[in-house]
Amino acid sequence: MAALNLNMLTENASRLGMRLQETLSEHTRDLAIARGTGSAYLDNPEEKVKNIAKQLDSNSDREKLEAMKRLIALISRGRNVSEFFAQVVKNVASHNLEIRKLVYIYLLRYAEQEPDLALLSINTFQKDLSDPNPLIRAMALRVLSGIKVPMIGSIVVLAIKKCAADISPYVRKAATLAIPKLYHLDSSHQPELIKIICTLLKDQSPLSIGSVAVAFDAVCPTRLDLLHQHYRRLCRTLIDVDEWGQVDLLNLLVRYARVMLPRPIPANGANGTTDYEVDSDLKLLLTSAEPLFQSQNPAVVLAVARVFYYLGPPTDLPKIVPPLLRLLHISPEIERVILTNLVLISSALSEVLAKSYTRLLVRASDPRQVKKDKVRLLRAVINAENYPSLLREFICYADDADDELVADSIQAIGYIARSVPESTQQCLTALMTFIQSKHDVIVTNAVLVLKSLVQIRMQQQQNMIALGGLPPQTFSPLEIISRLARRIDDLRHPKSRACVVWLVGQYAASAVPAENGIPVVGPEGIAPWAPDVLRKLAKSFMQETAVVKLQVVTLAAKLLVLCPSDRTIVLLNRYVFSLARYDLDYDVRDRARMLSSLLAGVNANIYGENDDGHEDVGGVVLRREQVKVVLFEGKASPAEDVPKDADDDHGRFGSLAAITGRWTGSDNYLPDWLEEGTESSLRDSEADAPPPPVYASQSFARSAGPTSRASPVILTPTNGPSPSGSFVRQEGAKAAYMDLDKFYEDAEETEESEEGESEEDGSGEEDEDSSESGSGEDAASAEGEGESDEEDEGEDEDEASGSSHIQGTTT
After folding, report:
1. Clathrin/coatomer adaptor adaptin-like N-terminal domain: which residues (predicted)?
2. Residue 286 pLDDT > 90, yes or no?
3. pTM, whole model, 2 decimals?
4. Which of 48, 508, 709, 778 is most deeply packed, by most CB within 10 A?
């Protein structure tokens, strides 16, 4: 017997082992197929491609699924597989959901090339619109609207109408996304689509409301009046909408607010501060959008910042900066977008950004555009407190390999010297150090910045002297000009050489400070370094560029006006004007001809005494003083950087135009604020109406007494308020219902009273009325404490009927 049991156990164990082995091998094979799906289907030799048609006609779902995966893989590689369209269409009604998904993707790709064959599957799509599975219904509508065949536009409209009233919010969202596709295919259906959009605007589901904003912008972007009744509900629903739906909905609400709502009005505050009166509807939008600053989606945060920047009062603008700075370290792409938008608002939020300037420092690994934007932001936040740190940063950036970053950094150093007077000496020291550099880019930009600083400082000194004051002794502009003049041979960039030549000619007549107590004076009051610069440039005149030649001719004319009797200067002028007269550049020839005519009253023989080609054009001959005024006076100082008015950018902040530099069709161009917004009553809806007040009936108030409280109809009463229509008991009747035996005794007495009342004529209608009016509370008072002795006979009958009502509700 024991041997028999052992044999049975051995046989069962072997069978179980074989079953486990088969199951394990089957699962292992499926796992191997799943792992190899990504690469196996991308490697499609011609033999497997020829076998696709046979697999699509197979009866096995596995072979069909494998064939469809190979087709989608071929499509992803850019290969045309439209030859299998007929075989794919046959599987559009497959019961396998995976196969049907891939068939839908294939049809979306090639339905436009094979419109006749695609129309054969429309009946299947229409049947799928009634499928119990909402995923199938949404997918069918998506494919139906994606078939770009204009002749089926009416069918698609009917399908969208049907799905817009679907019970599933996912299907309604698919219907909303199908509206822009149909509108771009055939815009003649716009009136019908607007009606569908109006219906979808009433949708209470947050899942589809974001897509409604997309459809609204695509079909009727100017019909903002359709949003009146839905504005407040959309603001309240904003927090529950999906992330990308929040972006679209916020952009739509921003446009609505700019057109329909009044802008914040400044008002005098209590402590002398400026407060702003904000419309209640506008405040609702700002309050509803503010929690979205904590969103994990950078697009949502940027959209909310756009709302506050263009709609909020100036006192709310500092709320924008911390959420945007939080996004800088998510990814390089997001950092690029955020920095570009911060540059647009840097002038308005410079004080707030200055507190976090360390988060805007340039890193060596930053792309070129990111470096440029960071330098512009650091330049915008410069103040008297942080300029030493930023000056060191800009000096370090000047050694970068990127020429644009070097130029921007040196320009920023000049901006520090102009905006913070205490930093002038440090900035000049850095700029003079840059002049000794071996890199042309550094030297050129340093010279350009020094030119503007010298010109501004000379203008300031002249103004202070005219007012009777003494110029500051921080630095001498003429000393800088002399150092630049001595290094004219080291400057190779044409623009920097032209700047130095202009400075030498413009300030050649200025008094040069004495060296070691000995005044340094050139010929007849001219600075000693001015004729030497003209000598060097006259020698290399033919090798100079046109921009330098123009300044050399002007320098020669200025020195001749300042010292017409000096023989060296006259000879240098004759040589320079002779070369310029026959120069290849017509601008140089015209400049020489104009100046020679202007100098006719100073030196008539500018080209020499033996010049026969000089023709007398006549006209008025100016004296030396008049020529000096023409050449030296009226030179405007360099213009300061004036930020653009942020109110005129029409919504560039937070839009694609901030990145591309131009407006596109997908951008939300914001109109100007209206003088007065529309009436607030237009936005009133049934949801905003206050609930109607609840009034107690006359018998209810009389039976309850002044000390009664309303409570719901329950066995054990409470002290809280009760809804309308509930009976009211007196306080003394509270203990009557605490004892269950006492309650059943009261129920038996109530049955006896009902039998007596049924014998009375007309008492039924009276009992029914008293039961509905909630007068059963008096019965509770009579049963508990016997406090109704002073009531009349009619009220006793009401009490009896009220007891009947209580019994019916408790049994």
Report:
1. 49-599
2. yes
3. 0.70
4. 778
